[in-house]
Specification:
It comes from Bifidobacterium pseudolongum subsp. globosum. GO terms for molecular function: DNA binding. Belongs to the Gram-positive plasmids replication protein type 1 family. Keywords: DNA replication. This protein has 446 residues and is α+β, with helices and mostly antiparallel strands. The protein has helices spanning 37-44, 78-89, 96-100, 136-159, 179-193, 197-206, 263-276, 297-304, 327-330, 337-347, 350-363, 375-379, 387-392, 405-413, 416-426, 428-437, and strands spanning 2-6, 31-35, 51-54, 109-114, 121-124, 163-169, 208-220, 224-235, 243-245, 259-261, 289-293, 335-336, 369-371, 398-404, 442-445. Strands 6, 7, 8, 11, 12 and 13 form a six-stranded antiparallel sheet that branches. Helix 5 (179-193) packs across helix 7. It is elongated and about 90 Å long. The two termini are 24 Å apart.
């Protein structure tokens, strides 16, 4: 071990909320710090030389009192809940990328990063899975980006005088049907619905500019899997205006009379016919179709990007992870898959774990959201990023600290999200204190 004297001067806090008692500003006095073998090797291996090196022996620096109880606080942030859920999922996930996500380093050191104003924080140099279906951390990041894009689309459509509506397509289901068959039937039904000359003619008559399709899945022990589609549709005319339709001629070549039908009824007929090919039925009294106009851009964006949650896109995971009182009651009711995951992590229930693993296996490789051709260009949004590209993006334009790969394991065990929350709420110095109090070596750019 190597001992070095390092004077750590007082720093101004970035993004500090002065009203937050836990972020009271204080100076850290000069300490004799212990640099362990891993840290020393990191320095010798070519780390940037403009670093100030910090660490503390287990008997050295005492945890600052104002940060000591952060992890045991009754108020756990949405970020911490997502990170802890991902940590619990590692025990039974079938996906190696999810097991490695946020845990495995891809370089010599992990970067603790923040934006100039402290509003955005994150880690760099870590493996990410990019799974919008199976990773609560990546899913939150991806859906937040998708939500912003959908909100931009809706705002543009309304500015152009177009109508924005939400089409929901469902099908009958029951316990005992497997997820793969239901999902395949849903995908086939959509493909049949939106293909052929009849669909092209319908698009023109209904004034369809484009659409965004997203898939939602819920599960209950009583009724099994429920897979359905939400489709945000942009049209140049009202969906409540009937369309002139004329069926094909019969053998006598006598033309059928012209009929005027609502777009919703035309969709319902085509949807039911498509599903029957796969042996799936719609719910008779509803026809499996709900199509209405919704005017609020933010609500529409939240709804279409929720990916299996009943809350808004930004809060979709955290709202489903509140602890306690309703867990038992919801067991036999319809649950989002995030609720299933949470129950599996908290209780270790094998039925829930099997449901989750089936969901992981079947959802892998499927797209959660699809834009129709030309719609992004119409809205001026440009080329769409993949889920993986969004997940890999590093938050913040400056490096607050570097943590070597060996020490990163201790950060993970000490709840990495807590460090991010402290950095975002209280600034750099609070993050340094958090690391020092836990005896974690880190390197700060001078």
């Amino acid at each position: 071990m190597t001992s070095r004297n390092i004077s750590q001067s007082e720093y101004a806090h970035t993004g500090t909320d002065a009203s937050h008692d836990a972020c009271a500003h204080h100076a850290v006095k000069q300490h004799t710090v212990i640099i362990d073998g891993a840290a020393e090797q990191f320095l010798r291996s070519g780390a940037p030389r403009n670093l100030s090196v910090f660490s503390a022996s287990s008997s050295g620096v005492e945890a600052p009192r104002q940060y000591a109880n952060t992890s045991s606080s009754d108020v756990v942030s949405a970020r911490q809940r997502r990170y802890r859920l991902r940590d619990g999922e590692r025990l039974f996930t079938t996906l190696s990328r999810v097991r490695a996500c946020g845990k495995t380093t891809i370089g010599a050191a992990v970067e603790l990063r923040a934006s100039g104003d402290g509003s955005r924080v994150g880690f760099g140099g870590l493996s990410t899975c990019g799974s919008v279906w199976a990773c609560p951390v990546c899913a939150a990041k991806i859906s937040a980006r998708r939500r912003d894009e959908v909100a931009e689309l809706v705002a543009h459509a309304q500015a152009e005088g177009a109508e924005v509506s939400m089409l929901t397509l469902t099908m009958r289901h029951h316990r005992g049907q497997n997820l793969e068959d239901l999902w395949d039937a849903l995908s086939y039904g959509w493909s049949r619905l939106t293909s052929g000359r009849a669909w092209q003619q319908f698009e023109q008559q209904a004034g369809i500019i484009g659409y965004i399709k997203s898939t939602e899945i819920t599960y209950s022990h009583v009724n099994g899997w429920h897979v359905h589609l939400h489709v945000l549709i942009v049209t140049s005319r009202s969906i409540y205006i009937p369309i002139a339709c004329q069926r094909a001629q019969g053998r006598a070549r006598q033309p059928y009379p012209v009929e005027y039908r609502l777009p919703k009824d035309i969709i319902a007929e085509r949807w039911e016919r498509a599903l029957k090919v796969k042996g799936v039925e719609v719910i008779p009294e509803r026809g499996g179709v709900d199509w209405d106009v919704a005017g609020d851009a933010e609500k529409l964006a939240n709804y279409v990007t929720k990916f299996g949650d009943k809350s808004s896109a930004s809060d979709r995971i955290s709202a489903e992870m509140t602890l306690g009182q309703y867990k038992q009651a919801r067991k036999n009711s319809s649950r989002t898959l995030w609720q299933v995951l949470e129950d599996a992590v908290e209780t270790g229930d094998m039925d829930d774990i099997e449901v989750w693993q089936e969901y992981e296996r079947i959802s892998r490789g499927r797209r959660a959201m699809t834009w129709s051709r030309g719609l992004r260009e119409w809205a001026g949004l440009g080329v769409e990023q993949t889920d993986e590209e969004i997940a890999e993006e590093v938050a913040g334009d400056r490096v607050v600290a570097l943590i070597d790969a060996d020490s990163w394991r201790t950060v993970v065990q000490s709840h990495a999200a807590e460090l991010l929350d402290l950095l975002q709420q209280c600034g750099d110095q609070a993050a340094f204190d958090w690391l020092i109090s836990r005896g974690i070596p880190f390197y700060r750019l001078l």
